[in-house]
Amino acid sequence: MNTKDFYYELPKELIAQTPIEPRDSSKLLVLGKESGKIEHKHFYDIIEYLNEGDCLVLNDSRVIPARIFGTKKETGAKVEFLLLKEICGNRWETLCKPGKKAKEGAQFIFGGGLMTGKITEVKNDGNRIIDFDCDENFFATLDKIGQMPLPPYITEKLENKERYQTVYSNELGSAAAPTAGLHFTEELLEKIKNKGVNIAYVTLHVGLGTFRPVKVDDVTKHKMHSEHYEIPEKTAKLINETKKNGKRVIAVGTTSCRTLESVATQFNEIKACDGWTDIFIYPGYEFKALDGLITNFHLPESTLIMLVSAFAGFDNIMNAYKTAIDNSYRFFSFGDAMAIL
User: C-alpha distances in angstroms, 133 versus 117, 139, 140, 148, 252?
Assistant: First the structure.
């Protein structure tokens, strides 16, 4: 299967630049996983498609304001850093530009002196390892000096940082939002619970590899980035009980999907654990945990459109995307949603 098979033409005006208010008023395309049947709804209608005893799995990772601007101690040169992955303590792997000003040993000042950093390693791929130092908690400092790392296709300023967080975000660590969850409001989640639907949480810290394009022609040759996940005991128990009772496990977002499928592939069951996953799901993959998926509309030729094509069938997905474009759905992170059930 070739990467170009997953290409589609998207009018620029359909790339959502700002989040819609209220969150659950976005459009919802409901796609029959087997039939390919399409229905047009709003996200608050999702409750109609959830049944008592089903289990909705949410990723509770919280985005950190991972874009920070440093001044080089020796020269005063300005460099932009993007925090990618916490290694240990206050040591982080970062992207930076311009890279030529960030050589090994270079020291930087952030936020007028609230934090300092020293580059300890330049990796082969150009990423930098930086040791940060600050007087108070690292994440508290980051909250003061950092900016939300919005995807490159969003060019408008985000007025409210919380709109790039889910209402249930809790565990700090993502460099990008698990955007399928942005549509939920606290009120909608309460209604879903009152219907007898179980809510379970996993954590997968989303890396910026999410936005990296697939650069190989042969899909199977693509190497996925690695992301850290955790499944609590309570979640594993809920999912296993749901399966035992013949009810559905529905993942909210490709991150929740990848977490569950990684663990099911490794252990042949869902169990409480944590680790790193680089699972790459594309057509031909046999799903082991999922019965349904709530997701957004993804970039052409991305690993995410490949994942949903594996779940719902290539022809069904490409037809759904064409239908969404014809009906002026909003695409990508701040865009509309799709439920595959």
Answer: 6, 12, 13, 21, 36
pTM of the model: 0.90
Domain C-terminal end among 119, 145, 171: 145
155 part of a folded domain:
no
The last residue of a domain, from among 145, 177, 208: 145
- pLDDT for position 89: 83
Q: How many domains does the chain have?
A: 2
Q: Which of 166, 174, 170, 165 is nearest to 205 (CA)?
A: 174
CATH of the domain at 42: 3.40.1780.10
Alpha carbons 158 and 154: distance in angstroms, whole number: 9
Q: Please, which residues have CB within 8 angstroms of residue 245's CB and are 6 or more apart in sequence?
A: 53
> Are 71 and 84 in the same domain?
yes
- For residues 163-167, average pLDDT: 96
Averaged pLDDT for residues 254-275:
97
Percentage of residues in the chain having pLDDT higher than 90: 84
Q: Residue 211's pLDDT is what?
A: 64
Question: Does the pLDDT at position 260 exceed 90?
Answer: yes
Upstream peptide bond of 11 is cis (omega within 30 degrees of 0): no
Section 315-329 average pLDDT: 98
| 232 in Cβ contact with 40 (< 8 Å) | no
Whether residues 133 and 181 fall in one domain: no
Q: Which residues pair with 230 in a beta bridge?
A: 203, 274
Q: With a cut of 80, say whether residue 208 has pLDDT above it.
A: no
**Crossing angle between the packed helical segments 314-326 and 303-312, to the nearest 10 degrees:** 110
Per the CB < 8 A criterion, the answer to whether 60 and 201 are in contact is: yes
Same domain, 236 and 200: yes
For residue 293, list its beta bridge partners: 251, 340
